[in-house]
Design brief:
Strand content of chain A: 15-25%
Distance between the termini of chain A: 51 Å
Number of helices of chain A: 14
Helix content of chain A: 25-40%
Oligomer: homodimer
Radius of gyration of chain A: 24 Å
CATH architecture of the largest domain in chain A: 3-Layer(aba) Sandwich
Shape of chain A: globular
CATH superfamily of the largest domain in chain A: Type I PLP-dependent aspartate aminotransferase-like (Major domain)
Number of domains of chain A: 3
Number of strands of chain A: 19
Structural class of chain A: alpha/beta
Strand order of the largest sheet of chain A: 6-14-13-12-11-7-8
CATH class of the largest domain in chain A: Alpha Beta
Chain lengths: 479, 479
Amino acid sequence: MAKTWATSGVDLHLEPTGPGVRRGLTDALREAVRTGRLAPGTRLPSSRALSADLGIARNTVAEAYADLVAEGWLTARQGSGTRVATGVPPTPSGQSGSTALPAGAAPHPRPRGHPAHDLLPGLPDLAAFPRAEWLRAARRALTTAPNEALGYGDPRGRVELRTALAGYLARARGVRTDPGRILVCAGFSHGLQILGAMLRARGATTMAVESYGLDVHWRLLSDAGLRTVPLPFDELGTNPRTLTDQAAVLLTPAHQFPMGGTLHRDRRAAVVDWARRTGGLVVEDDYDGEFRYDRQPVGALQGLDPDHVVYAGTASKSLAPGLRLAWLVLPPGLVEEAARAKGGKDTCGVLDQLTLAEFLTSGAYDRHVRAARLRYRRRRDALVAELARRAPQVRATGIAAGLHVVLRLPPGTEQATLRAASWQDLAVEGLHRYRHPDATLEPPDALVVGYGTPPDHAWSGALEALCAALPEGDATTGP
Amino acid sequence: MAKTWATSGVDLHLEPTGPGVRRGLTDALREAVRTGRLAPGTRLPSSRALSADLGIARNTVAEAYADLVAEGWLTARQGSGTRVATGVPPTPSGQSGSTALPAGAAPHPRPRGHPAHDLLPGLPDLAAFPRAEWLRAARRALTTAPNEALGYGDPRGRVELRTALAGYLARARGVRTDPGRILVCAGFSHGLQILGAMLRARGATTMAVESYGLDVHWRLLSDAGLRTVPLPFDELGTNPRTLTDQAAVLLTPAHQFPMGGTLHRDRRAAVVDWARRTGGLVVEDDYDGEFRYDRQPVGALQGLDPDHVVYAGTASKSLAPGLRLAWLVLPPGLVEEAARAKGGKDTCGVLDQLTLAEFLTSGAYDRHVRAARLRYRRRRDALVAELARRAPQVRATGIAAGLHVVLRLPPGTEQATLRAASWQDLAVEGLHRYRHPDATLEPPDALVVGYGTPPDHAWSGALEALCAALPEGDATTGP
């Protein structure tokens, strides 16, 4: 039943056929955007008009639109209707390899269609990146760098950066290290790839992970040949009691992602005890250790036993992910293996490495983190206060640190809330997507809200959209 | 037979025992430098004095010193004797992981003891890196970048850079592509890791390589689970006739590394034919395609068949390896697989990517390459002229392109020439180290001389040291 629908001079040639009408409509629309037949900015017909024209239910059209908004192909801004997103470049037909990979869409769940409001977790406020200070530091770093710094470098990374990091991590995070045991890598994902390859080369086959976490991490480990096995999770955080002969365990002890708690001290001790007994390796993902608001930062687990814990830190939250700079602090015996797993060469640009070293030693990093911490704390306070006023049925947890909170929703409302958010043109995630597929627990209905993500000028609008999307109902109970 | 030898207040506590006295002495000296017992700059006893003191042959001491000079632990500057290199930081004992990995020594053969003269191949003149222009471009790039550029990016790399590269590669190298099929990676090694992982994930087990090449590349492929099988090599270059069911082949068609020839046009056609018949993949390593002096550049093999050839280019020779920027141009069907093998995330800092894009589009890149080509060409001409005058028994081959030449030596003199070079404090490589261990050919005695490596002020001294190290004897014959 091919139909042609014309608006603003644009033909919407759709054939919504196939196993389901909604699926067919979604695919046809996506294809039209992808190939450029629907140009960026084009306003789509209202769901009422299109459903009448195609002879299908209006709800089906609305759901197809919502799917494509969530995928980033369309945007749905209140007052201006549904439009083709401007961030998606059309892909000429015949390039089958590119077709399934629009800018960032396939391997990254983050939509690129520039929703009006973005509260997805995982990003700092990119508008607050200290561009001028960074350029000043880059000028100092490149002006004073020896020529040999521009050559093939130490696989561990530039010694200037490793030296600056060793001092900073000891001071700020209680990490016990020296520059020789630090391995600079291109973001934590790259560090995890390196550790996965290293463990696999040692014959490891399984790695314990938390019941809640990031699927991209599990997939990286799986691609490295390691099966991920989730540990139980309760009110004290991740429970290491089921650790036995796994080669390693991946944890977020300072700030569980995404639940937000701190690993209980007995659990910390138990993890280290397991590592000592079995020779297992603990990988500590300290992704946002700089941002703790209500009490002293929780020191790194690595400080308890530098011989059995790999500490992993990153500039992705404190500065920006685009720098692609992170670091592993390795037990002494693993440095060479990890450097080999990294490919035996440095992988990070020396200019950024030298600039970050300059940033750390000049005090610019501390100043930036202090200012960011204050700004994020104010946002968190505003979020908690606004929720208490307007949505008392929703409970914010995991608020003591980091750049995100978990909002507990009335039971059974997570999916509906996500749909409502999509109609507010608000990008946000539900808790269920962070559950390990083999975890035995059933996550409560909740949103994971990244309040660090929007720039300052967009923050109040995002908060407003969030409140508008939240369900009404009874206050949640239970853990 | 433990002996203690003291000079300048430094104890040389050596126990030269074990399977060979030379090996024992070398190991003991290396250990003394590594642990800091012999401080950087310390002058070692003359080989005559040490041999008398230890009761071993003087030649054994001289050879042990030469080995450690070649490894970068010691330097042997004429007139000031043999000293502990200053670039090797001591490693505290107990850090066994770091011990075998002084700055750059273990995974990189490049000595870090700062020899007086460096003609190792693989590096451009780092002193000629256009620092001021790069900083200007960086300022423009970072000032105009959208905030989202600082977030998690497309796993293929920034679209600005891929767009600029697509235009440049078409114009300068005859590559047929569009931005959607380019994957930015952290140097060619990283690209090879990605391709190795991708091929392995497809079930591939072997990859054909050239009989001459870089051991680090073979090792990366081996670490990815691929056995490397060398192809025959003759006067027309690498011979693809033994290509059968290998999953892929790695070639340097424009400028064989290190032999310097161009792959014959019949061989180019045969390789593409093989790929079409079998579905095999051709990986074209175009590491220095910008630098050809005596005639038009050889177009990329990829231009013959973009569906079966992966083109790999890099900024490591045209700008600097420290940027860690290279690019793969992929057949359409492989983009998504390669992005996944890369880890599903961008791995290169966006600032350098945006700066290189700015460099390419503003014309600064072309200007820099033109100036560099002229400078390197002058060096090559000076090298060839000086050799003709002072060492007619040595024949320079592979001189039409790139940053290195192969100097054919009188038969049986390669090892002695390398020792003589070491005593001139000249870092240079012999051809034998570039032979694949399974290659059936026996390399001629030859040096591989990287004339791009020294800064301008050190070039004439390096050339002088090279001439002084070259053997006397009859002119070489044969291919």
